[in-house]
Write a structure and sequence with these properties.
Mean pLDDT: 82
Number of strands: 0
Low-confidence stretches: none
Radius of gyration: 38 Å
Number of domains: 2
Shape: rod-shaped
Order of helices and strands: HHHH
Structural class: mainly alpha
Number of helices: 4
Largest sheet: none
């Protein structure tokens, strides 16, 4: 019996051969590569990285360093915790300053009202 003849129960072997599988895998890989390349090109056009880097090179560098720091595992370290605490304190300074200014204005206004009343009572009694 030759290898091309059917055997036994009349069922034919319809499995693709190794060469056909390799060709199919190769064409699938090419298609995937092409789609991925197109997606990256579309994303880069939408985000317009080149003009952003040209307009703001230092901001881009800082963003890249921040992303690298986070991806490098620096997010959950003592140094990061200290930076976050410092950032919160620095962000709170304007709010505390405004509140202190409001308190001082209120106290100064009460002081002025008290001295005006005291000055009026002295001038009327004299």
């Amino acid at each position: 019996m030759s290898p091309h003849e059917s055997s036994g129960n009349g069922a034919h072997d319809h499995r693709p051969r190794i060469g056909e599988r390799v060709e199919h895998i190769g064409s699938s890989a090419q298609q995937l590569w092409s789609e991925a390349r197109d997606a990256v090109n579309d994303l880069s056009e939408a985000l317009d990285f080149r003009s952003r880097v040209q307009k703001h090179p230092y901001l881009t560098l800082a963003a890249a360093a921040g992303v690298g720091y986070i991806l490098g595992g620096g997010l959950f370290t003592r140094f990061t915790a200290r930076l976050v605490r410092l950032g919160i304190r620095l962000a709170a300074i304007p709010f505390v300053k405004d509140e202190l200014a409001n308190i001082a204005e209120g106290a100064f206004a009460r002081f002025n009202r008290g001295t005006e009343r005291g000055g009026q009572s002295q001038s009327t009694s004299a």
